[in-house]
Design goal:
This protein is of the alpha+beta class. The protein is built from five helices and 15 strands. The protein has three domains: 85 residues, OB fold (Dihydrolipoamide Acetyltransferase, E2P) (Beta Barrel), CATH 2.40.50; 112 residues, OB fold (Dihydrolipoamide Acetyltransferase, E2P) (Beta Barrel); 40 residues, no CATH class.
Length: 273
């Protein structure tokens, strides 16, 4: 049983949609509460939300959430999608993301100087979200997904089409409404991987996939070359005060991916968010 409470949450990131046999499609959504504590909201079938419930990054939402008892990660919360009310968007100007930083970094407990310290915290208390600043970006590369991943995606999609049609037909016999048609979701055959070094003592570098929805959507619309150029620009540490929002994989808790990017331009006055 879930015990829901209404909370205000500032959204900082979304990952590309994943097919779900239970929820049709879900988007892993990250945010912080008013006190800066990080949260992971699930399930959110983002593309199926009504227009007024669709939120953007760095927008406040109000929603009823409850600790997800099926997910032992402390940041994971179940959300009543119909309770979502969108609020104010926190802008970047005029201080280059400063207002956002005041909220996002209000709670220092999820800020880590290294991936190693984040993993150590995960082993200690199952922490699964953290912000890590890169010390050096070595390269940005395209990583092709496996044939098995493509086959799994296509099989899930076919199963969902069959299930959706069956449910719609059944409901139409007895109810006055129908389920929405299944929306097309493109399979993205490659992902971007960042080779980087954190500030951990003796860091042997990391190869980390970037799963940020905005990045993958840019790749889908404009192609790999254009997206790689954009990501390489963001990864220019002389120009941008880059940080990675990192989240782990449920079944592989010490494996962290980049689920969001924080990239304000470095201020001429020497302030680094």
């Amino acid at each position: 049983m879930f015990y829901y409470e209404e909370k205000q949450i500032l959204i900082w990131g979304k990952t590309y949609p994943e097919l779900s046999s239970r929820h049709t499609e879900t988007v892993c959504t990250g945010g912080v509460l008013e006190d800066g504590s990080p949260v992971r909201l699930y399930p959110i079938p983002y593309r199926y939300l009504e227009g007024e419930k669709k939120f953007t990054n760095y927008q406040w939402i109000t929603a009823r959430i409850a600790k997800d008892t099926r997910d032992t990660r402390p940041e994971s919360f179940h959300v009543e999608k119909d309770s979502i009310v969108c609020g104010e968007v926190v802008p970047t100007s005029p201080d280059e993301w400063g207002k956002r930083a005041e909220i996002i970094f209000r709670n220092s407990k999820w800020l880590f100087d290294s991936v190693e310290s984040l993993r150590e915290k995960e082993r200690e208390d199952r922490t699964s979200l953290g912000v890590v600043e890169p010390k050096e970006i070595i390269s940005v590369k395209v990583k092709e997904r496996t044939d098995e991943e493509k086959q799994n995606f296509e099989q899930k999609l076919e199963n969902l089409k069959i299930e959706n049609e069956a449910k719609r037909a059944q409901i139409s016999l007895f109810e006055d409404y129908t389920l929405p048609e299944l929306k097309q979701l493109s399979y993205v055959p490659s992902r971007f991987e960042i080779h980087w070094r954190c500030f951990g003592q003796g860091c042997n570098t990391h190869h980390t996939q970037a799963l940020d929805w905005g990045l993958i959507e840019l790749q889908r619309k404009q192609g790999i070359e254009s997206t790689q150029q954009k990501l390489e620009e963001i990864c220019n540490l002389e120009k941008y005060a880059l940080k990675f929002f990192m989240g782990n994989i449920h079944n592989h808790p010490t494996s962290f991916t980049i689920v969001g990017l924080w990239y304000p331009k470095r201020a001429e006055r020497g302030l680094f968010w």
